[in-house]
Amino acid sequence: MRIVRLQTSDGVVTAAQTSHGFQRILGDPASPLAVDPAAAELGHVVEGEVLAPVVPGKIVAIGLNYLDHIREASMDVPQSPLIFTKFPSSVIGTGSAIRFDPSEIRRVDWEVELAVVIGRSTRSVPAAAALESVFGYTVANDVSAREAQFADGQWVRGKSLDTFCPLGPAIVTADEIPDPQRLALGTRVNGESVQDSSTKEMVFGVAELISYCSRFFTLEPGDLILTGTPWGCGEFMTPQRSLRDGDVVETWIEGIGEIVNPVLAPAA
Ligand code: ZN
Predict the structure, then answer these.
(1) What does the pLDDT average to over 110-125?
(2) So what's the pLDDT on residue 268?
């Protein structure tokens, strides 16, 4: 099942994306995580603006987790997952603008990532059982202000600007993605392909990441794990590339969909 959140004239509605359009999920669950994809009944077709499909409690992000990205960045393969965070206030949906002030920030980069939506409270889970904690998957763009990221000694400021976490368009429930390590994913900027890889390039797969995180902190329903980005970031191109006012960024993952975000960064 593909679950979306829509802003309608009746307020925010949880709906399923079907071949008939967006159909309201009966029982009117308050949250996409309240939907049982095996038992959900669908009501009438509704229209509205597609919002980010989940409002995360926390965003756990993983750095340097694709072998092709580690090669382009000339870094060593981490011995264990490299964890950082993005503030939940950075989340936007598809269609919304990535905004920044070019007098403050210039090196703004794209990072397509498979985002794991946690479905149940998880602490100290072995990797062999970890995928049972997954509610579903969505597409994330881990937008990054590189000069802030590399100036601070840690990455929170450069990763947490308002609008720097586009998510969506839907949560695809875990039953439809039995193997999250076989998905093509990529990014286009103004129609040009800049990232094109596969989740099989991950150093630590989804199950290992959930297991590792859960050794140190509890993962709660609605938390997200952003699982890292493949090769093709603008920062590591020659010459370097950055997002500019008027650009359009599309990030996509096979079987989930794509999110499209214009860049709004006019000079003062
Ligand atoms: Zn990232």
Answers:
(1) 98
(2) 84
